[in-house]
Amino acid sequence: MANTRNIALNVLLKIENEGAYSNIALNNAIKENRLSGVDSSFVSALVYGVLERRITLDYIIRSYSKIPLRKIETKTKNILRLGILQLLFMDKVPDSAAVNESVNLAKKHKLQKSSGFINVILRNITRAEDKYTLPDEKDRARYLSVKYSVPENIVKLWVNSYGENNTEQLLASLNGRAKICCRVNTLRTDADTLIKKLSDEGVVAEKIPFIDNALYLENTGSVERLRAYKSGLFHIQDASSQLCVNFLDAKPRNIMLDVCSAPGGKSFSAAQYMNNRGRIFSCDMFDHKLKLISAGAKRLGITCISTLLRDASTNDTALPVADRILCDVPCSGLGIMSRKPEIRYKDDLISNDLPDLQYRILCASADNLAVGGKLVYSTCTLNPDENNKNTKRFLEEHPDFYGIPLKLPNGITRAFDEEPYEITLMPHTCGTDGFYISLFGKKASN
Question: Which residues are the active-site residues?
Answer without folding.
Answer: 380
